[in-house]
Amino acid sequence: MNKLKFKTGIRFAILISATIFAILHFDLNFIGRFFMGVLSALLYIETKNIVNCIIFHMLCNFSIFLFVVLSQYVHIPMSNSDGTPQPLIIVVFYSSIVISIVMNIKYIKNNLPRKRSISL
């Protein structure tokens, strides 16, 4: 993404990166994957650390996995009769995004180099 950012500008690089992310997931929910790609690109640009993007992706995947497992025991249907996702799935997905952002902010605050004051 860094080379693309310098050649085309940051906004276009984010859009291309998010589009590639969404396409490579081979999922019909292109918009959701595209949104995750945009958030991951913004997270990478802010932190310059791919590990944060990986953690974000893992949290999103884990939240969906957790919902699928819990729905087998609690008998929560994954989708409505017309095939649209249940509101609970949407809440779980966006909750994972919020949790990931909060965790990344804490990580950034704890790992940014501190400015040293020089006293004469």
TrEMBL record:
Swiss-Prot/TrEMBL GO biological process terms: CAAX-box protein maturation
Regions crossing the membrane: 9-24, 30-47, 54-76, 88-108
The keyword NADP appears for this protein: no
Keywords, alphabetical: Membrane, Transmembrane, Transmembrane helix
GO molecular function, one term: endopeptidase activity
Domain of life: Bacteria
Keyword flag Cell division: no
Domain CAAX prenyl protease 2/Lysostaphin resistance protein A-like: start-end pairs: 5-62
Pfam families xrefs: Rce1-like (PF02517)
This protein's name: CAAX prenyl protease 2/Lysostaphin resistance protein A-like domain-containing protein
